[in-house]
Fold these 2 entries.
Entry 1:
Amino acid sequence: MRQAAISRNTKETQIELKLNLDGNVENSRIDTGIGFFDHMLILFAYHGNMELELKCIGDINVDYHHTVEDVGIALGSAIAKSLGDKAGIKRYGSMLMPMDEALVEVALDISGRPFLIWDVDFVSEKVGDFDAELGEEFFRALAFNAGITLHIRKLSGVNTHHIFEAIFKGVARGMRKAMKIDKTIKGIPSTKGIL
């Protein structure tokens, strides 16, 4: 089974996370104490077809930065651990994701070479009490800890909620494609023999 459990405890956050890439998405349970972020992570699990159990207690009385970044670190680490040596995966994934007026393009490579291109601007600095700038922090932490080259580009959109929803769904759908086992791929999907 492609699964992992991560415990991450700092002076800022305490995180317990379980991820099953081949589990039942209906069993996902997510609680970070940040309503909008929980909503995005639920979308991520559902569209990525991942079973995700996540509990984070963070210093959200300060702000949401530590919680959002540390969840990205833990989730990225769990993805990397679940994929193991990456034998047989498709490796690449992309998605053009519409959400009403918003349109986001996502392309990724589970390469072992982490990188993030974040070409996203927002009209509003917040969705409710969630700072829009935290989106980049989350996906940087996710990409660097999962070992993913990740490109996210907003093509259109003015509603910050819609843009975020397109991003989280788009990345999840791209990941779903890239993490899928392809029985025609023999071993590691790289001429180097390692990812």
Entry 2:
Amino acid sequence: MNSYESQIPPQIQMQSSSVATVAPPLGSAPEEREPITNLISAIEAILRQPRRVMLQLRHPGSGRLIGMMLFGVLVCSLIYGVVLGSFSMGDQLGAAPVKMAAGLLITGVICLPSLYIFACISGSRAGFGEICGLVAGLMMLMTLLLVGFAPVAWLFSQSTESIAWMGALHLAFWFIATCFGLKFLAQGFSYSQARSNAGLAIWIVIFGLVAVQMTTALRPFLGKANSFLPENKQFFLAHWSECLRTPGTMPAIDP
């Protein structure tokens, strides 16, 4: 070895800093294995420890947890529906809560079979009961967030008469709540050992389209109407266009 080669420092092989982090398996933390016994603990778990909910959905007897979550969806939907109805008062004070709860639950029932089929095609090991639980958790987290937005929505409903503006505000709240709910669903789906998320991505689009169409099928949520349900069929984009053209008279759509 000559003197020049001896002056060359040895090369140090650098390890890649972008190491993929793998989430620990469900139940690895002791607090995740604590049973969920009532609605309050279910609310706390889905807000603070969603993995705890996902783990219990895999155990026998998860039907009780699903029932509790669906009951929470019903209660929260009715509460937010009262805020919707308070904009126009009158008959809407009773009609809006019923439409809100029915619309969300019907959307979940309509979209549930396609999610289960996509899960099976993707190689997921989640059973039908676990898929039902993930959808129930999605809707429960959505409605909990909507209840959190309810005081803000009520304030604006009592200080403005613009149906178009209130419709846009409620849609914004619904969009934010849906994003967080879908995040919970996607996280639960990721633990089912599915080989691909393509089916889940398609289902998310389907769920969004069904949800916004349901707001038109059950209209009005805001404003006054002569009947409980609309007398004519309409696509949601066409209805939104009419609401924007005549904001003072057309009933707006809301989740």
